[in-house]
Amino acid sequence: MDLLGFDFLVDGLVVALTEPRLLPLTIGVLGDWGSGKSSLMRIAAQELASLRNESDVDEHESDDGQESGTEQYLTIDFSPWQYEDHDDVKIALMTAVLDAIAIRVPEAAERIGRLRGIVAGLRRWGRRLGRAGAGAAPAVLPVLLQGTMPDLDAGTVEMLTATTGAIATVAQNALSESDPPAESSTEKTSTPRGDVDAFRREFGLLVQQIPDCEAVIVFIDDLDRCLPETVVDTFEAIRLFLNTPKTAYVLALNQNVVESAIDSRYPELKKPDGAGLGRDYLEKMLQLKIAIPPLAEPEAETYVNLLFAELHLPSEDFTRVLAKASEVRRENGLAVAFNIGIAGSVLDDIPSKLAADLKWAADISPVLGSSLRGNPRQLKRFLNNLLLKHRSAARRRAALELPVLAKLMVLEDQYNTDFQKLFDWELAAGGACPEIVEAEARARGHGSDPDSEELAEESSTEDERPRQTRRRAPREVATEPAEGQTWADKTQIAEWLRADPPFGGTDLRPYFTYSRDKLSFGVSASRLAPHLQRLLTDVLSDVEANRRSHYPAVAALDSAERTQFVEALLERVQRDPASIALTTAFELAEKNTDIVPAVCAAVQRIPPAAIPRGAGMAAVRRLPLDHNDVTALLDRWESSESSGLSTVVQQARQSARRKGAKGGNVR
């Protein structure tokens, strides 16, 4: 079932695979983790499996009218990730393909037997190479490429071979040896190149022998989960052994991850400019690329709505809903293809639970789709987590409203420092906090004066005054009346505040009981986009020059990405205050003053005794001393029992007074 609206991508993939003149063909289905690569390949495989030979169908049509003829395309699923701990992946892939053909063509047993014998010989060569030394393994690629990829750029081959140096010699010697002839045997001795050529020749003949088969198509998934060795071995198996006429290989992969894996596998192989060969290698391997874009907001809303429809509807009704969604997508691909209105035109009766879920999902879909970057896996994971928490609350007879819990979880999932701030406000107020009222009023354009609503209530009836008094009372405990308004000025928070339902007047404490997974820690780095994950690794370098060279890239991030990046960095800080992450946070705050409140809020939750003296010195040198949050942080440190930290602050402030500094940094 296609819940993601991948029709246009599936069509492109199927058209390419069914075009004989393009074969042999290797296609890359490119996308981030969780973007739907596996779903796209599964749908394409199903469509290919539905293509039958016309003459065969006429002869073998079943009594119920269902087609029962042979398939035009032999499709094979393979996951190298499942084999990397148990077998040579090249051997596993070749064996999987031979097994599938053996089932389809039993009469080809003799040729398949010969191929299995060659595979066994290749396994022996692999073991011999291993005995030659682990360091020789990377050199196999250039050695074999010279003989099996004549179209490879000569300069690249020369550079590859020269760079491997002595290692290549070891590999060449190991591979040049031949198996000794068996006693009383007339069989010829074999070499690796001879076995490669023999396998390709026999395999090509085998594929041609499959009756009524247009092509053998192998779908390879999970490549970006594999170790670098497995990634390269998979490509080697395709290029060296299996890439023959009437074959195609479709690989699902995250391009950046796979390129990095190739670079990691061959660290000594560099181009003249110092770059690795990962990108060039991948360009050489993939004749066609199909990139999966992130879901746009309407597409994300459609996907979420269809997940709820699948949950609440019987299969027959859900099939009708899917058909209608496909029809809407064909007419307007970027519109919401299923919502409560469309449900009414398809279903005779909309289940009440489905109607309720579609209502609140529509309210939060803009912020949900953008915060999860249109990633289907993250959207589905969020919904599963939400429903589990709601059902857990129901078991304890906690009356939580699903829309409120969902909106709160969005904040927790993506902007944990702000989630922590809201929690602190609720805790301090003993219930519904005034800051959220101020923030919502500002974000929703109800006026910038937090007391405007209060003045309007002055003219209300006497009966309303007690209620007004109860609402005004919590304001007295707020230490900074405008804090909620300042909070609402953040772009991502303003968008979240405008989403329904509003929280003003709602006691959120029961909801925090079930939505507080990360009150102590920030956003998991694994949820970051790949380029943010790499940037996080770069700024955590122990070499100062290296990490500081990446700080401009942090400053160049847009507001939402920088917020998520800082959340992940502060998670590292709270997990290990003694790590370089704390110094990095202070150094980044020096040049990016918008993150100062988040950094100070996170550090305030760390016991002063856990703050290293060196990090304290970085704080007083880097942070703006005239900032209120910095002042509060240093006051805490100065009055703490941590003598080292207290002394650092005292000395810094004395130095500032001597220099007559009114503000700024202490250098």
Provide structural commentary.
- Residues 450-461 have a biased composition (Acidic residues).
- Residues 174-194, 441-486, 644-667 are annotated as: Disordered.
- InterPro entries: KAP_P-loop (IPR011646), NTPase_KAP_P-loop (IPR052754), P-loop_NTPase (IPR027417).
- Residues 183-192, 644-654 have a biased composition (Polar residues).
- With 667 residues, this protein is mainly α.
- It has three domains: 7-53 and 69-181 and 188-291, Rossmann fold (3-Layer(aba) Sandwich), CATH 3.40.50.300; 297-399, no CATH class; 525-658.
- It is 60% helix and 4% strand.
- The protein has helices at residues 7-17, 37-49, 54-60, 89-104, 109-132, 140-148, 154-176, 192-209, 228-242, 255-265, 278-285, 297-312, 315-331, 340-346, 352-371, 376-395, 402-414, 416-429, 434-443, 452-458, 465-472, 483-488, 491-498, 509-514, 530-539, 544-548, 551-555, 559-575, 580-591, 596-604, 613-622, 628-638, 643-658; strands spanning 25-30, 73-78, 215-220, 247-253, 288-291.
- The protein has a five-stranded parallel β-sheet, sandwiched between helices.
- α10 (255-265) crosses α11 (278-285).
- The longest helix is centred in the first third of the chain and has 24 residues, at 109-132.
- The protein is flat and about 90 Å long.
- It starts with 6 loop residues before the first helix and ends in a 9-residue tail after the last helix.
